[in-house]
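INFO batch 0412 | record 1 of 1 | parsing
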Amino acid sequence: MTVEQRAGAAKKPGFAELRAGNLGVRLAVNAAEIDAVQALRYRVFYDEMRATPSRKAALARRDRDELDAVADHLLVIDHALGTGPESVVGTYRLIRREAAVRAGRFYTAGEFDISRLLALPGRLLELGRSCVDAAHRDRVVMQLLWRGIAAYVFEYQIDVMFGCASLPGTDPDALAPELTYLYHHYLAPPGLRPRALPERYVEMRRLDLDSLDRRAVQAQLPPLIKGYLRLGGFVGEGAVIDRDFNTIDVAMVVKTDLVTDKYYRHYERQLREALDDQPND
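INFO prediction complete | emitting C-alpha cells
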C-alpha cells in the first residue's frame, strides 16, 4: 500500500479517545500510525507466531495487504512510550460493508462462505488482524480494544460484526476439545452461519461432548475468542487451517442487538460522555 493510500485510509471520522490510565484507544489518524500498526502486526504474526511472510513483507518488516487502504485501524496507545509510532501497542482492523465493496471483498471470504451475512439488510463490520504487543498483553488492553469496537459500533450503527479468530497451531486433533466445545455450545443460527469453504473445511466435531472438561476448555480458549463469546457471539460451521499464519481459524459472528445489557449500557454511556467532551464546531 502506498503512502497516499495509507493517508487516504486514515482520513475518516472517528470517536474521541477512550482512556484507561496511560493507555488510550482510538482510530489511526495518519499514515505513520497505520505504518506502526503494520509493523506491530509483523512483529506479532511473523516474529512471534512464526507465520510465513512473503519476500516483500520480510524485506519491509510490515504485514500489509490491499484491504488496509479501505479499513479503519483501531489503536491502543501507551502514552508513557511517547507520541510516535512506538506508542502503538495494540490494534484491530475494522472494515465496513461499503469499504469491502470498494476493495472487492471481505478478508473472511477467503476462508468462509459468508453469503448469508452478505444477504442481510443491515450494516456489516468485519473485524480482523487483531494483535497486542507482548509487553502489553493483559486484560486492560483487551478491554480497551473492545471498548473501541463498541464505540465504533455505536457510531456507525453496526448490526452484525464478524471475522476470523485463530487458535494456535495447525493440528485439528490437538485442538479437538476447543473446536468441539465451540461447535456444540456456540454454533450460529442458520441465517447467520458462515461455513468453511468446501476445499478448506475441517470438521469441528472431533470428540464426544460428554468427555469434555468444560471449565478446562474454557480456560484454554484464546482471549480474543472469549471476548467474542462474552458479547453474545457465535461460531460458524467448520474450521480452516491457515498454514501461512500457523493457526486454525474459526468464523465468529456477533449480532449487536444480542450484546448483553451490561455491555450496551456501559459502552453507550462512555461513548456519549466522550462525544460530549468533544468541542463543538
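INFO post-check: The longest strand covers residues 88-96.
INFO record closed
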